[in-house]
Design a protein that fits this description.
By secondary structure, the chain is an all-alpha fold. Helices cover about 50% and strands about 0% of the residues. The longest helix has 20 residues. The chain is elongated and about 75 Å long.
């Protein structure tokens, strides 16, 4: 917290606010008795010895159930197919549509995984993957 650092540096005499008292802050500044106690707690799983690849992969997938992941990937795929379906690019070869659908799927997936932050639209798809 910058307020604690300002007190430690001598820029201000007192700081008032919702400040948690930690060991590092106690070393740099003096604290009074708390006026209010916060009931916020942090609950984490007990660290284990299992550091397998499968366990680390499951940590990434934990925020959603498998059904929600399937729904998300399905929605990205449907969006990609609809993007190709309604695009103005026309071809007589079905393989071209498959390639366009794959490109759209990757672009929509990258957009989803980057939390909706649009990347440089002029960059090529391999450059966006990097």
């Amino acid at each position: 917290n910058a307020a604690v650092q300002d007190v430690a540096d001598g820029l201000v005499d007192i700081a008032i606010g919702p400040i948690w008292i930690t060991g590092a802050r106690l070393k740099s500044s003096a604290f009074t008795m708390p006026v209010q106690y916060d009931q916020t707690v942090l609950v984490i799983p007990r660290p284990g010895a299992n550091r397998s690849y499968a366990e680390e992969t499951n940590k990434v997938l934990d925020p959603f159930t498998m059904g929600v992941w399937v729904l998300l990937i399905g929605m990205i795929a449907v969006t990609a197919v609809l993007s190709v379906w309604f695009s103005r690019k026309r071809s007589k070869q079905p393989s071209v549509y498959a390639r366009l659908a794959l490109d759209e799927f990757l672009q929509k997936g990258i957009f989803f995984c980057s939390a909706g932050v649009e990347q440089d639209e002029n960059a090529s798809l391999p450059r966006k993957l990097l």
